[in-house]
Specification:
Length: 327
């Protein structure tokens, strides 16, 4: 049986960074042969490029993207899993979109065809320790669905916050769970602890820490379904071939987050080149922005959010763009 890990995390939580370090442990220390499956609704998956350097004889990366509608995307996901099962991997690590209802993962994995090949090993949910307070009911539902099913919740960027911020994050998670009538309640961890809620600097994880995480399992607490992917509240805008310098781009991204006429912009991510021709990765939420040099990329900027006004956003990023809805 092939083990399956689902790594969830709301937009901008840092799940791709966690996956990078987790897969390094699985392949280099645990000696497993791993396939990373990027499962996204968009036609372009930035995270696939961010993980490309992990490819080796012990690690492959596959992608499920796009589709004419949501049901088509699910069929592609199912077909890809069946194909991967034939290729001799010990484990499949699935990274879905940050907009993802975990119940749909369990529904697919418990189908007769897939149960012959796979066993669910872990559901791990990455939540940013300074989680935004003012999320919409739809966003809180997605957060609740992810933490309700998690065998372990990993608070990212915990090294950047104090204990009171961690307490607010846990209180928000518990409110989101209560809002969908889920009885699960998380206790607030101490910074530096490794438990059901792990609140430790990722860069300080030891092999024993990762070994513990690899045995986290999953949880299936019942909750009330208050949101469906068919509701189409979430959307992604793809801006291709932007000719902006990094300083100008950073300024425009900050303005978009503040401009309420753009709708609710939740995350901006993508790649561009600097004046020396080097590739830069941009990853931003309303709480902050990271820019770092990477080996390769693709000229694209993706704006993700709820009920966005695409014409208004396009005024900030004058380029050819297309709209991909999560449906």
């Amino acid at each position: 049986m092939v083990k399956v890990d689902l790594i969830t995390g709301f937009l901008g939580s840092g799940k791709t960074t966690f996956i990078r370090e987790y897969v390094k442990y699985l392949t280099e220390v645990a000696g497993e042969k791993v396939c990373i499956l990027e499962n996204d609704y968009g036609a372009i998956n930035v995270d696939t490029m961010l993980l490309a350097d992990l490819k080796s004889d012990k690690c492959s990366i596959e992608m499920v993207a796009g589709g004419t509608d949501y049901d088509c995307h699910i069929r592609r996901f199912r077909t890809k899993l069946i194909t991967i099962a034939m290729l001799g991997f010990n484990r499949v690590v699935i990274e879905p979109s940050g907009i993802f209802d975990v119940d749909e993962f369990f529904d697919i994995m418990h189908e007769d065809t897939l149960e012959r090949f796979y066993q669910i090993a872990n559901v791990l949910t990455v939540v940013k320790a300074d989680l935004e307070e003012n999320l919409s009911p739809e966003a809180d539902f997605l957060l609740a669905s992810q933490v309700a099913n998690a065998g372990r919740v990993i608070l990212s960027h915990s090294e950047e916050v104090d204990q009171s911020t961690v307490e607010r994050c846990i209180a928000h998670m518990n409110r989101a769970l209560a809002s969908v009538k889920c009885k699960r309640v998380f206790e607030t961890p101490e910074i530096g602890s490794l438990g059901k809620v792990t609140c430790k600097n990722l860069w300080e994880f030891s092999p024993d820490d990762f070994a513990s995480i690899a045995k986290s399992g999953s949880a299936q607490w019942s909750f009330e379904k208050t949101f469906s992917m068919d509701d189409n509240a979430f959307e992604s805008l793809f801006f291709m071939h932007l000719h902006l310098g990094i300083d100008e781009l950073k300024e425009k991204i900050q303005e978009v987050f503040k401009d309420t006429s753009c709708g609710k912009v939740m995350r901006v991510k993508g790649f561009l080149t600097d004046d020396q021709g080097k590739w830069l990765e941009v990853n931003a939420t309303s709480l902050g922005m990271d820019v770092r040099e990477i080996s390769e990329g693709q000229e694209v900027l993706i704006v993700i959010g709820e009920n966005m006004q695409r014409e208004r956003i396009a005024e900030y990023f004058p380029a050819k763009y297309s709209t991909i809805k999560t449906e």
